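Appendix B: complex inputs.
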Amino acid sequence: MQKFLLQGLLRRALTEQAPIPNPTSIAELGYTLGRTARQKLGRSLSIREVDAGSCNGCELEIHALNNAFYDLERFGMRFVASPRHADVLLVTGPVTKNMREALERTYAATPDPKWVIAVGDCAFDGGVYCESYACVGAVANVVPVDLHIRGCPPDPTTLLKGLIAFVETMN
Amino acid sequence: MNFASKQTADQPSPPSCLPWPRESVDRAGWLAVGESLAKGERELLSLWGESSSVHMAVLEQREPRVRIITLDCPEDFFPSVGRLHPPALRLERAICDLYGLKPEDAPDARPWLDHGRWGVRHPCSAPEKIESTSDPYAFLPAEGEPLHQIPVGPVHAGIIEPGHFRFSANGETVVRLEERLGFVHKGVDQLMAGASIERAARLAARVSGDSTVAYSLAFAQAVEAAFDVNVPPRATYLRALMAELERLANHFGDVGAICNDAAFALIHAQCGIVRERILREAANCFGHRLMMDRIAPGGTLVDLERDGVRMLHALVEWIELMTPRLIALFGDTTSLQDRTVGTGFVSEALAKQYACGGYVGRASGREFDARKAIGYAPYPQLAFEIGCSKEGDVDARVWVRFDEIKASLQIVRQILDEAPEGPIIAAWALPEDWTREGAALVEGFRGDIFVWLRIRADGVVQRCHLRDPSWFQWPLLEAAIKDNIVADFPLCNKSFNCSYSGHDL
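Resulting structure:
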């Protein structure tokens, strides 16, 4: 164990430079973030991830945001275990009918001010599942969405760009 | 071999499944197979329905390893296999929910995937519109004065998939765990029916995102079996390469996550680095981090360039350096061993009864691996050792995963050195004569994935059944957590890492 710890101290960090956010996400966000909210939250953001029917692909890439290369926490963002602690819901999946109520209740349990970021192509428009009897489709059909991050699944850099744009618009 | 082509085109063709024929049986034949499952003479591979018939795939002890039988049930009833052999229970409940076929005298008549919220009953066969509600669900009782219940989910605390767990606990000790799943049911069976082969392949690739390569491979193999397509040798090697990279990435990710659930963050961080490097090389070599949609019926859609071979060699070399260090770190950290040893025990008998695949089965003495047992190309040409243990606890499941990491590294090296040159996809066209059936059994990182499909002559999929290995692992998690403390559940759960999406479909 000492070897690992020593390496961690002596070697250069693996964490990479932050990507430059995408101008379209910033434009989308311009409308949604009020001044007061920015003052209240500063640069810190607590995120609650909600899988509302995804294939788990988006979750894998969201997980990757916590690894040494992307290190999401350096931007003041962290994943929390309860919607009660969250500022942002990160929602994935084509919202299955069996998950609809759970998503609505999670949203209701999140204190104001709150935002929703829909992650992945399924969350945008239902993706390959859009015609199913078992799916509601886009997350925006169930709860108001402030930002979409597209991709199947979006890679961590794309996710990071979206999230950084989100926080920067707040400041 | 193509049995179907021996017939003349103007004859109506009886559906014949390849490579394993499907036979029709009567009630007695159906029950006889059910009884042999109960006696342990065969193992259940899958059980699935159609509008007025049920099908069952079983694993035989001798060649051919797979047998598929069908029972017509025009009255919408069929003799319950679950009554004789419990592993079939949830599959039967799913058949009843989706196709409206009822298992006679089944001991558990509760719905499984249907929560009453679809606005329709049995959506896949003669759907019946209903007012969308939320059906009440009676959890199994646990009686005794000091017992209390802990409901967990469907939204969980971590970044994981949704499902509901109902614990009955006596103080800290779990007396009973009951799972309620189906929250991520997306109606894949119905979306498959009527889809083109291309669309069906995209759906198959999105059944369970962590096993996208394995699902694409299983789907492709079933189509190739049905249409007697010969996959070029290079393509088989490239597919295996992707499958092994997927396996490695998942095993490293999970070993890290298991240790993290025992509050040992160091391995989690280190394993996260290995996983990320694998995904990055996958993106460099194949154009997608998870290698989604890279495999198509007939071969692969992307080739591996010379640069890719060099990069993957370097990656394997680095992982081979890291693996023994991580193994030592895991094995020498006594505080971690204290959490994993003896936790979440699954007996050999249960693993055998449930024909439990993957590391869960192998950690409890069931050494089945489709790469060896079915031996699809190119695995018979490759040398690798499959790990096995009889300890059956969280610790054993981690060690089996380390063994699988070693095996996958061996395989990747051989593929990089030995993959033949040549085309990467077979030129094949629909024969446009008659309806075909195909099946495949492919080893994903989690265990064996079974696919059976029927495709019309014009290339329209009539029915595609995909059975995730989790069907036979979820029930064992209920057994594994019994008599453990509630706080060890995340650890047990992660050591199984069953798929919700693959199971709920």
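The mean pLDDT of chain B is 93.
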